[in-house]
Design a protein that fits this description.
The structure is a homotetramer of 337-residue chains. Chain A is of the alpha/beta class and 337 residues long. The first copy, chain A, folds into 2 domains: 62 residues, Alpha-Beta Plaits (2-Layer Sandwich); 250 residues, TIM Barrel, CATH 3.20.20.70. In chain A, the strands form 3 sheets. An 8-stranded parallel beta sheet of chain A has the order 13-12-11-10-9-8-7-14. In chain A, α3 packs parallel to α4 and α6 crosses α7. Chains A and B meet through α2, α6 and α7 of A and α2, α6 and α7 of B.
């Protein structure tokens, strides 16, 4: 932790040194031309206590040196993690394509979706049963019935399924029917939910909050891992910016940034980032070339009548085109589907 | 709902008109110089179905005319709502000052805090027992014990207390010990939690998510109100932007915007917006002058040793100065404390 | 400058120490538990050279300790600067109200505007002659003729006038006809223009870019001051965020932040921040209470036919209401109009 | 233009209809369940006049239907534009790699840079002579001497050169020595500069402002084209967001969005987006796969001593690796270097 002093008066510096040492750190004072700096050496896992020194009038700023995550960090595990989910592998050269409708709407719709994405080459089936919707008046999902339909469609096609849990209590039932538990963007800092997922033995897909920094995202992964579940896959799905031509701004740079900071696999969801189906194919290609470990794509047999997210869902034919577009890129990148 | 056509070919327009009518709307076609527009007239509460028309190649864009909220809207209730919370009133000319420490840390700390803020003129006591922290390794709050200490400190000073619930299950116990249930910024779209708070008979303080639009914020209030709880107070606490001199950017314009759109009271939390104690006093003054119905301020008897948020907490003396600064402004604004 | 090492190997640390000393700084090495840090002590005004050390694989991050501005900083001048502009004073207790139309449109319009704002109590007249417009097909201003009409309207009412220059060449003619030169938000980092304004003897109103940090804004003031012109007034006019209910987000916290960092006066332009006339009055009040040294407000005799910015311009009667609303607040804040 | 009424009273609607017709549009009134809408049919190139209707209390919102650009739009020119710049072609299947140092620093440095990038396969040489720097105390470039050195290095290697002009007056001299005129991000809305570039016969590289929308960017291209210069290449270089792990957030979605809206070529500058050299290679790959028409990359023979942008510049060996990485991807995408 580096503490930049607002005042260089010896008694003010001494006061800070004393506080630093009371908190169990070793203090180094560096007297500069215009500013004095106190470096606090020690484990920063009590850092909010040090940050409180900013409440002193003679302290200008306190900033940390270490990244706050541990289990999710590249430093404790150098090699890439490979997360297994039924027949699918994600990370370390294994590319994963999770595809399917935004919501499970009926038996026919989910079965048809599963067959279409399987035929085109997807490796996992997605579909929402518990839907977190901005409006209380919107379709909230088929819930338990949806879970059962999704599981059946997955089994019929041999595709592992991923679906969202939105409360700590739903984690149990989702883990029972699905192969992977999704934590949605709006719940990235729902710590009760993260802890519940951390206690499950199913792998977890952790979407980045649309307002969350990469550091916070890794800290949310840390919550899951600290409960004993090491199988976390990160999913970038767009962040909020001032641009209005797209629903969100896909932060493609997150791929190499995460690769450097963490050993966890990272996939891209171009459907939610764009909010418009025309952008999904080129962004899936960009994800492959950027080095992502997979993509998650919304496909609906008939988007114009979808209960949710119709505008960003691909038609079956367009999904096949996407798969054809990424195959040669995967080959160049030495990734196997 | 307005549907802007990408194509003006009669068959494409006819296709859209048909879809619009199938969904139960009346369609008006307006042929412009360069674009054809289809207006869909009817209740937009099924609007995601219409939005799905964007999946058609011959549709450029679909946008709604109506605001999506109903109960929270100014249109269903013209006069300002006044929310009562024990002895405190919020809204309609009643100004509320909620003050106290970020976290309840000990009996002595919370009692001392309650006495200090009461003496300076605060009308409610705040203090966290269940703390949503970015890091799983940070202090997570005193939980049930903290709730009991907070309640006792409130009763001893006659101040109603407000504290946060972070999961649906905590709502019951929080409602038992506290006078107002706080929903934190990170949980603004935790719909399970919103529904649980909506079923409680205690008033709810709904903080704005740090990257949530005003529309989404009102939709979260709508979730609470749709469950039968009309007593919602909105709290602006800063949004995320590119500026790094402050922790968040206080969206002070939210006050008059909410005033126009909604009948619900709105208060300002300058402590979390700024993340720095020196900005709290001028921003509390700005909140009063902008027309807010209250403020929520972090005060700690000894910020340099606070377990959390020390850098943004006011010392007792500075909190008194804040109260002295806002009193004459409240008088000008015709607000009573 | 603090250099955080990615590697703690002695030869890597030694390499950085050597580089730091080659660039003329003194190096202090602090060996921490998990990271080694090198502090480079010396004047940071060559800092991009040090920043280049980030190109080394064994360096994780380089960050500066000192603020990059000097003349604009509070440290070189402790007392508040008061900028004089004809009969108007700005700063140090003097509050300034600059009001008038977005664009000068005709002799009648600008004269009528000047009389209206003067009668209501404004202290300066604003009006654009050279208009920077997003579209090349929009009205670009009356240019020289507009300058002359503005000057005449100012003289007739005794109001000093402020108007924008958009290119280095326009600075001369603007300085000839106006009492204060405005640098618009889009030109905040137009360094040629800043230098030209710095060579003028007229005071400069420097608007914050809608995408600029407070640090960058003060660096732009530094450009003007470094050319010899100390009379800079800063103007916050809203920054860009994801919120769409308002045109921009008014960063009201900029007032106390600037007050701490700089001795320069700061005013608020609520018209451009909001982009909607209904928000202008409450935001003008908030500006006063936050401690601003003035406001800049768009008023048009007949906004519905304005050539530009009609939607955010106040009608004459609403402008009078605004003046009535801020007077008692100015009294509380000990500011004189 | 769609005008949403706040009031449905016949006299208010009639007032708006009258105003719309006075401005030369045809008005269509659509009476909805809760809102009345007036559609104004006609050319929207006078739209700020219509927008002014928002100043009426009985109007809620006015929003445009048409995109404001014309010459830059896909509608006036269906096929992709190919911009020629000496031996280099950009667009329509031709991929361009502009590489070289941030600043021209010396004859040796620029010559060595030119040879290195040429040998690795770059098709154009970049290098700054007039540098827009945040600080007035930073190195401001070698100016005219830099231009001459850059031209010489380009001629010696057969690489066309691109360099920035920062004021209208510099356009002439830049056009004399360079093959392409760059407009930097900070000057994207410097309209005097855009007009000067529009009068030149050299092609223009227009960087996106770091907080400019795609619409504004195309409007800036429109300024150049409206002066008679059709040879504009767009360059996405990252936008500003809350994320701090990278200098800016690369808006990779801009590639397919621009492709849909405009016929102009679009290239990506991963160096400025990332601000960190390690991200440049994967982002260059992503740019190719997203369908970009080129990249612009900073390469320095010895980044640790660079006068500017050292931390984001590639070393010669890393630049060669980048070229090797994109070649097979270009083949998949059917692009020729």
């Amino acid at each position: 932790m580096i503490i930049v002093m607002a005042s260089s008066r010896p008694e003010d510096v001494e006061h800070v040194v004393q506080k630093v040492e009371e908190l169990g750190y070793k203090a180094h004072v560096i007297v500069g031309v215009e500013r004095t700096v106190v470096a606090a050496v020690g484990d920063e896992r009590g850092k909010e206590r040090l940050t409180a020194l900013e409440s002193l009038a003679h302290v200008e700023r306190v900033f940390p040196i270490l990244k706050p995550f541990k289990l999710a960090g590249r430093e404790v595990r150098h090699e890439d993690s490979i997360v297994e989910c039924g027949s699918a592998k994600i990370g370390g050269g294994h590319f994963c394509v999770m595809a399917g409708p935004c919501s499970v709407e009926s038996e026919e719709q989910v079965n048809s979706s599963a067959q279409i994405v399987k035929a085109a080459g997807a490796t996992m089936l997605r579909g929402g049963a518990f839907k977190p919707r901005t409006s209380p008046y919107s379709f909230q999902g088929m819930e338990l019935e949806g879970l059962k339909l999704l599981q059946a469609a997955g089994r019929a096609t041999g595709l592992p399924v991923v679906t969202e849990a939105t409360t700590p209590e739903q984690v149990g039932v989702v883990a029972e029917y699905a192969d992977m538990i999704q934590i949605g963007a709006r719940n990235m800092q729902n710590y009760g939910l993260l802890r519940a997922a951390g206690k499950s033995d199913k792998p977890v897909l952790l979407k980045r909050g649309m307002m969350s920094t990469i550091n916070e995202w890794l800290m949310s992964a840390e919550y899951i891992m600290a409960e004993g579940n090491p199988n976390v896959v990160l999913c970038e799905r767009g962040i909020r910016t001032f641009e209005t031509e797209t629903r969100n701004t896909l932060d493609i740079q997150a791929v190499p940034v995460i690769r450097k900071l963490s050993h966890l696999p990272i996939i891209i969801d171009p459907s939610h980032a764009a909010g418009r189906w025309e952008l999904v194919l080129p962004m899936a290609c960009a994800a492959v070339a950027a080095g992502a470990d997979g993509i998650m794509v919304e496909m609906h047999p008939n988007p114009e009548v979808a209960m949710s997210d119709g505008q960003q869902s691909l038609k079956p034919k367009r999904f096949s085109m996407l798969m054809e577009a990424i195959r040669p890129l995967l080959q160049v990148m030495n990734k196997t589907l």
